[in-house]
Amino acid sequence: MTCSRLALALYPFVAAAVAINLFMAGLLSQSVGLPALPPLAALLAAIPLGVPATALAVRWVRQLLAEAGEP
């Protein structure tokens, strides 16, 4: 699997994980008096933030595949 195909396959899952983490961070921010982050805002923020997170995930998966001995 090429790197770009791997990135396209992983992006939806990584972006969803970023959205969940942003939403949870928004909920935690209420404990210090900040307003909560609405779910839609977390989803919209996860679209661009998912790109660098996907690049890191692809690099990690590539390293795992190299350790396993895949060419």
From TrEMBL:
TM segment ranges: 7-28, 40-61
Domain of life the protein comes from: Bacteria
Keyword field: Membrane, Transmembrane, Transmembrane helix
Name used for this protein in its record: NnrT protein
